[in-house]
Amino acid sequence: MKFNPGFDIQPTYEPLGFQYGQNVFGPEVENRSLDAIRKNLMEPTCDGPAVVYSIAMDVGNDDDKQNMIERNLLYGAVTYAKGTLGKEPIRSQGHIHAVSPSCGMSTCEVYEIWSGAAYIYMQETAQDHPGRCFAVYAKPGDIVIVPPGWAHATIVADITQNLTFGAWCVRDYGFDYDEVRAHKGVAWFPIVNENRIDFIANQFYQKSQLIVKEPRIYEEFGIRKGIPIYQQFVENPDLFLFVSQPQLAKEKWENFIP
């Protein structure tokens, strides 16, 4: 199953990347290599594809770019290789969103799966005790929000398929890897077990519980299911202001459940 992202962009797989349609802007992709993420893997010396995923930060329709800039919003797209990294499925290394100078705090991210399947993994902190930990299983069209300040990683849930997703984030984004790397990864490692993904605890954290769940509908943010989040922005450019100004949703972040 594939999902219409709401504008003319197509993932490519050999090599990983994106093709942009007419009147669509987008950069040369940034490739994340296996060597760049080894420190956060369960088996740092494992084999896997040389390029694990490709990122295109700041994509969209030419007509929409000014609205994005005025709201300090950026739309990014990422596509992942198939397969495994040793015993783990293909995944990102895990990070926390750094404090953005524009708003003075860590910011959230709104994911939307386009193709393949994912676990959007997140934990409240990357300190010794990670707090609440969630792995949200998401399929094409599903939306998942990662709150400000949470450590998170994207995991390919079906290793036979490429995973592609889009996401709203702040324009002056930054990634903080220090605490995750200090603990040699996130608090729960995904493991390929025949045709399913299991999770095992990372011994470098204190004991925690992982909740594996389905996505939910974020009615409190006014986000509608079944309509691409890019299209929802076009219809209402202020809808995702809580991404670039997370303090607007301060009460919603308290005891947040993804």
Give structural notes.
The chain is mainly β and 258 residues long. The chain is built from 6 helices and 20 strands. The protein has helices at 34-37, 65-70, 178-182, 229-235, 241-244, 250-253, and strands spanning 9-13, 16-20, 24-25, 30-33, 51-57, 60-61, 73-80, 84-85, 88-89, 96-97, 109-115, 118-123, 133-138, 143-146, 151-156, 164-170, 175-176, 188-193, 196-201, 210-213. It has a 6-stranded antiparallel β-sheet. A 4-stranded mixed β-sheet has the order 15-12-13-20, with no helix packed on it. Strands 1-2 form a two-stranded antiparallel ribbon. The longest helix has 7 residues, at 229-235. It is globular. The mean pLDDT is 96.
Task: State the main characteristics.
single chain, 258 residues, mainly beta, Jelly Rolls, 6-stranded antiparallel β-sheet, 4-stranded mixed β-sheet, 36% strand
Give the secondary structure arrangement, pairings included.
Elements: E1 9-13, E2 16-20, E3 24-25, E4 30-33, H1 34-37, E5 51-57, E6 60-61, H2 65-70, E7 73-80, E8 84-85, E9 88-89, E10 96-97, E11 109-115, E12 118-123, E13 133-138, E14 143-146, E15 151-156, E16 164-170, E17 175-176, H3 178-182, E18 188-193, E19 196-201, E20 210-213, H4 229-235, H5 241-244, H6 250-253
Parallel strand pairs: 13-20
Antiparallel strand pairs: 1-2, 3-6, 4-5, 5-7, 7-16, 8-9, 10-17, 11-14, 11-16, 12-13, 12-15, 18-19
